[in-house]
Amino acid sequence: MSDANPGSTVILSWDNGQTWADAGGRIAGIHAGVVQLRDGQLMALGRGDNIDGMMPKSISIDMGETWTYSGSPFQAVRGMQRPVLLRLKEGPLLFVSFCGARAQPNRQDMMITDASGKQRPVSGIFAALSFDEGETWPTRRLISDDGPPREMETTDRMTFTMSAGSAETFGYLSACQTENRLIHLISSKNHYAFNLAWLKTPAPAVP
User: Fold this and answer.
1) Counted domains in the chain
2) Residue by residue, what is the 3-state secondary structure of 140-171?
3) How far apart are CA 66 and CA 64, in angstroms?
4) Domain span including residue 102
5) Segment 56-71, tens digit of pLDDT
6) CB 77 within 8 A of CB 90
């Protein structure tokens, strides 16, 4: 992946990394995360080029030569924010991004369903899971320890409140999953580690 100004592009190698070439098409938005779907299509989610105010979703059926665009269900991100998209070893797609008024001015907080079965608002870094190749994202969880509110540092020595309802507000995210299936997420400042079971467990109810 590479920013292409405008948008992003896929850089491909057909000879095990000996040579590389731009696939030619342009993904909507910079800093895009890309994943290959099981039918061979590429799906990308990027920053900027918003569609109806939402993060753009780009689909390619020809390995990046051409793309079609639509609005995703996710809030757009802004400067000092970059999302990540990858397929977990267990099969689901994982998307990690930012939501809510603290992370994006003029945005409403995202609603999650906690262990009580009730919905409540959250803001900051969140993770979403798709079990149907990106058609829907029913499982969403704030990347937080769900503890009492406390101040923590983020990008450029700014601070945020870590709590059951808020998480880190900025960062160029990067993520990987190790052989033991632990997911490591790094922002520009902090390191988080969790697994699929934790993502699928509803957040604790807030007293």
Assistant:
1) 2
2) EEECCCCCCCEEEECHHHCEEEECCCECCCCE
3) 5
4) 84-207
5) 999 999 999 999 999 9
6) no
Instruction: State mean pLDDT over 66-85.
Output: 96
Six-digit token string for 90: 């267990």
Identify the helix (H) or strand (E) that includes residue 56. strand 54-60
Q: 96 and 179: one domain?
A: yes
Q: Quick check: 106 pLDDT over 80?
A: no
Q: Residue holding tokens 């992003």?
A: 8
For 111, the 3-state DSSP assignment is strand
Token pair 């895009």: residue: 32
Q: How many CA atoms lie within 13 A of 33 on its CB side?
A: 22
Mean pLDDT in residue range 79-89: 96
Tokens of 135: 């058609």
Written as six digits, the tokens of 117 are 């079965």
Residue type, position 132, single letter? D
> pLDDT-based confidence at 8, cuts 50/70/90?
very high
Q: What is the pLDDT of residue 5?
A: 82
One-letter amino acid for residue 4 of the chain: A
What pLDDT score does 101 carry? 83
Same domain, 180 and 121: yes
> Token pair for residue 108?
């409403």
